[in-house]
Structure formats: structure tokens, C-alpha cells
Amino acid sequence: MMRTIDWVNGAVEIIDQTALPGELRILRLHTVGELIAAIQSLAVRGAPALGVAGGFGVALAARVHGDDPAALALAVRKIESARPTAVNLARGAQRAAVLLPHGPEAVLTEAFAIRDEEIVASQAMATLGADLVVELCGARPRLLTHCNTGGLAAVTIGTALGVVGELHRRDRLAGVIASETRPLLQGARLTSWELARWGIEHRVAVDSAGPFLMARGEVDAVILGADRICANGDVINKIGTYSHALGAQRAGIPFLVVAPESTVDLDTPSGAQVEIEDRGAGEVTAFGDAVNPAFDITPHDLVTAIVTDRRVIRVDRGEKP
Fold first, then answer.
1. DSSP assignment letter at 29
2. Closest by alpha carbon to 85, among 221, 236, 224?
3. Burial of 266 (0-12, 13-18, 19+ CB in 10 A)
4. pLDDT tens digits, 85-97
5. pTM of the entire predicted model
6. Residue pair 147/222 in contact by the 8 Å Cβ criterion
7. Concatenated DSSP letters of 104-125
8. Enzyme catalytic residues
């Protein structure tokens, strides 16, 4: 399985997600500026992958600016703030930056540790999540997912889509609906591409169709990822998540969030304290003005359960992260 992001011969290599599904393109990033541009253009995206990018970004900064403390500190701050909503990016950068006094190789070693932990976490989430889905939905559920949560969003395997893959491996999956995820179509472009590579039967639906398909009985559970999980269980995820949560509640089906422990932010009490990134009007339309929030906040009372690599949090039973 290809890695979405890795360190290869002194540079960060990523799969350019903006080129998919038409082209599988590998980018080599040699500078902090190139890495930040890749993050902001969504060439690399997904909470776990961004955490790894944060660590590798500080490793790049340590090599380039090791003799200039002021430039090094500025580079680290720029990496941390490249995308403000997802907690993993800043957390990965901060974790690697702690090792800066010990030199570039110590920083790189810590960045490798972040990468390897996310790989292990993906497999753990796949197992825990698949067990929970079977428990809640029976042997062969039909699932709806939103945005992209596969290996492209992590390093390998993924979060929510990793659970889908594990169910498929167990022959416990009846089918998948991938919402297209406007405006950049991460579901239609990326999730569909990954599901096809795995040989998983799936259909793509427009975002607004999700709640109706649930109401019509075509979905047994909603399963998706998160960019930040607040202390009270509020979930920050790709815009459109809240609508699917409302649809799942109305239809009486589970709404499941799968994200690593590195995405749980106990320092943020609720979604009200999270800065929601606005991507600008250009992604939506070339005519007139537009509002384009990249994420939304799903209140914890709409969440059935949160699956991490270490535990299952039954939010519907009053459990908190």
C-alpha cells in the first residue's frame, strides 16, 4: 500500500490529492514554503496526514534554518497555522519542535515516530470500528460516508474508510454510498477512487441526497472522520457532516465518527471555541460572492459513538472523550 506522505532522501514526498483521480502524481517537497503550499492547496489533507506533515515540516525547517533561531521559530509557527481548524497539524509540529534543541536528526526521528504511530492507529481503528458496526447494524450493513477518510487522509489504511475496508475484508459489507463532498469533491474524486482500488461496490451521491437516502431506508449507518473532537464530544469535520448527522438522527440510525486519539482535543471545551476555516469564494463560484466554510460543527448529542485507536466512546450513553 502506498503511503500518502513520507520522508524520502531528504525531502517530503506526498501523493498530490489535487491530481486524483486522473493522475497518480508524487510531489517532492524540499522547503517549508513548498510544504505549506501543499497543505493549503489540499495536495495533502486529512487530519492524520496533516499531523505527519507537521512533524516532517519541522524536520525540514531544522535542516534549513538550524543556525538561525528566529527564522526557525517563524517557520514552525507558519507550519502550525497553515490550516487552523484541524488539531493534528499544529500538534504534530509542536511535538517535533520540542526536539529542536537536540538537532535536526532528533527532530526527524520524532517525525518518523508520528508517522509510524498513525499507521498503527489506522489498523486499530479499522478493527475496533468494524466490530462496532457489526454490533450496531448486523452482518452486512449499507454505509454512507462523507469526505475522504482512507489512506489518502492518513498515511495508510485510513480512519472511517479503514473501517469500511476492514468490513469488506471480512465479507461483512453490503455497499457504500460516498457523498460527493462539495465544493472540491473529495468524496467523488478521492473516496470513490480508493473504494474502486479496493474492489468495494459503491455509489456516489450528491451531498444533499444523504438524509433522504437515510429516510428511505437505504443506509444502515453513517461513518465518517473528524478534524477535531472537542472535550464535550462535539465533532469538527468537513462541511456537510452536520446535515448527515441530522439525517441519521431523524432516520434512527447510528452516526459514527472514527478518528485517532491525536484528533481528540481535550483543551477545547466545545465546537464554539474552534476557528472554522473559510476557503474563499473562488472554490465555489466565479460569479458574485460566496461563503465557503470548509468545516462544520456536529453537536455531541447527534453522535452515536466515537471510535479511536484505543477505545469506543459511546456518546449516546453520556460518555465523553
1. E
2. 236
3. exposed
4. 989 999 999 999 9
5. 0.93
6. no
7. HHHHHHHHHHHHHHHHHHHHHH
8. 227
Beta strands in the chain (DSSP E): 5-8, 11-15, 26-29, 142-145, 175-179, 202-205, 221-224, 228-230, 235-238, 255-258, 264-265, 295-298, 305-307, 312-313
Third-level CATH fold of 123-317: Rossmann fold (3.40.50)
| Per-domain boundaries in the chain | 5-117, 123-317
Residue corresponding to grid cell 443506509 = 219
Which residues are CB-contacts of 10 (< 8 A; sequence separation ≥ 6)?
30, 63
Distance, in Å, from the CA atom of 230 to the CA atom of 227, rounded to the nearest integer, reads 10
CA distances to 50, 235, 263 from 312, rounded to whole Å, are 23, 15, 14
Is residue 257 helix, strand or coil? strand
Which cell numbers in the block locate residue 295?
A: 468545516
Give residue for cell 486529512.
46
Q: How far is CA 6 from CA 12, 111, 144, 162, in A?
A: 6, 10, 30, 19
Three cell numbers at 156? 495508510
pLDDT of 130 strictly over 80: yes
pLDDT of residue 286: 59
What fold characterizes domain 5-117? Answer: Four Helix Bundle (Hemerythrin (Met), subunit A) (1.20.120)
